[in-house]
Each structure stands twice: as structure tokens, then as C-alpha cells.
Amino acid sequence: MKKVVLMIVSTLICGMVLMAGCEKQNLNLKGFDNIIGCWTDPIYEDNTDGKLIVCYKKSNALLTDSGGIEFLKDSTLIERKNAGWCGTPPVTYDNYSGEWQIQNNDEIKIDVAYWGGMEYRICKIINVTDSTLKIEIISWEIQ
Fold it and tell me: How far apart are CA 82 and CA 115, in angstroms?
């Protein structure tokens, strides 16, 4: 249950962080141009510092019955996550809009809505390839 709550909170934070920006960014991805697109099947793990790591798989579209995130070229995003506070199966998913931007060369600032308000996240890009995205959640706030 603790991991489910952590997963929900991290998803919410990532979404909130994407919504915070008011202006569209001039993309300067510096090697992270592969981030554009849909990322699904999130797998959550703790690293040795107690930070949350999230690994995604590249997909052609967000899945109906699973979480995921889509980074669009215009610095907007769509995050598919729990439609409500309960993380006990069966989980219902919904799409939430947000914004994202690259900062400090390897971090993604995400502001995105969630069922209870806004979520603000800063995620460090650990690795991004044509098929996988691995991030570390540095900070997370919900309002």
C-alpha cells in the first residue's frame, strides 16, 4: 500500500511540475531530444539515496489501463494517472494536462494537474534512449 501511495504521489508531482511554466520554452534538449513522445509502463524503484527512480518504455500512444506520460514539442504534456485518490485495484486512469521544460541541462521541471489539484516535480534525466526513459524524482510538491 505504501508503494502504491508513493507511486500516486510521484505521478501527481511530476504532473504539477509541468503545469507551472507560463511561457512556452525554446527547446534546448542538448542530447535529450529522444524525450519527445509517449512513455508508458512506469516501473518505480528506490535508489540508494532513498530517491524514487521511474523507468518508462517508449510507446506509440498512452495506454488505456496504465500510467504514462507524453512530452510534446511545444513544452506541453499529457500524464495518464489515477483518476482518484484510491490506488487499490481496479485503478481508473485519466489524462491530465501540464507543461514541462529542461533546466540545468539534465533536469525536467514538470507542472501538471491531478485529481486533487496541482503537482510540481523536478526530475533528473538518468538515461533516455529510443526505447527507454529513466528519471530520478528530485523534488515533489502537491497543492
Answer: 8
Q: Are 109 and 18 in contact (CB under 8 A)?
A: yes
Which three three-digit cell numbers place residue 133?
526513459
Q: How many CA atoms lie within 13 A of 105 on its CB side?
A: 0
* Cα–Cα dist 77/119, whole Å: 13
Round to whole Å and give the CA distance between 13 and 102.
16
pLDDT tens for the chain, 143 residues long, are 444 334 444 443 444 333 333 334 444 455 567 899 999 999 998 777 778 999 999 999 999 989 999 999 999 999 999 998 888 888 899 999 999 999 988 899 999 999 999 999 999 999 999 999 999 999 989 99
For 104, left (φ over 0), alpha (ψ -120 to 50), or beta?
Answer: left
